Amino acid sequence: MDSKKTLALLQEVKNGTLSPEKAVLKLRTSPYEDLGYAKVDLHRELRQGVPEVIYGSGKTPEQIMGIASAMRKNGVGTILITRLSTEAAEIVEKAIPLDYDEVSRLGIAGRKAEITSSGIIVVASAGTSDLPVAEEAARTAEALGNKVTRLYDVGVAGLHRLLSKLDVILKARVIVAVAGMEGALASVIGGLADCPVIAVPTSIGYGANFGGVSALLSMLNSCASGVSVVNIDNGFGAGFLASRINHLGDKE
């Protein structure tokens, strides 16, 4: 149950059209819907401000459709589906309107999210090979109501590319820095920006990159203050956290 439905329920109690006992029953029975293979968390938006996000990898198209249908039935307007394969997306979109992006493997079911924050999130990637993770972060942030500016292929091997966009960096409320190899981009941006920087190590790189571990360790050991790090290839987590930070700026 989202905040609008909860307010409507409370208004019914206030108006006397619904008894407190029946209202309590509705609240007690609405926290989740048990589909057998999944318990859909219908109170997530009420608790956290954002509905449950469907992790598509490992789920069948039928399971994804079942979860999304339960969410739509309960008033969720924008449903985010991450790590969704092209094959699964083709099946899902036959039953549910779906905006699918092959690069990020991210699908959005339902209406396009409105911009709900005045701040700007900048998503910067070191190289073109990092685009799948960067786009996952960018599209996640957009689906959560944020304005996003993309700076792609601005890695430290050609530092002038990043420095030419310094005006964009200085306008950001939060920056997501996506890099593989040695992961140096996050430290450089952290030394230039006056806002929080969320570093995302990617599994892009040669053998000694160890599937992103070298970039992860470099980012964790950054000497630039204000840099935090999410898990390897976790563009979704970075985009979600960036949205939280961006919206906090408006609350303040």
Automatic annotation (TrEMBL):
Residues 119-251 form the PurE domain. It comes from the Bacteria. PANTHER family: PHOSPHORIBOSYLAMINOIMIDAZOLE CARBOXYLASE-RELATED (PTHR43064), SLL1489 PROTEIN (PTHR43064:SF1). SUPFAM superfamilies: N5-CAIR mutase (phosphoribosylaminoimidazole carboxylase, PurE). It comes from Caproiciproducens galactitolivorans. Pfam families: AIRC (PF00731). GO terms for molecular function: hydrolase activity. GO terms for biological process: 'de novo' IMP biosynthetic process. This is AIR carboxylase. SMART domains: AIRC.
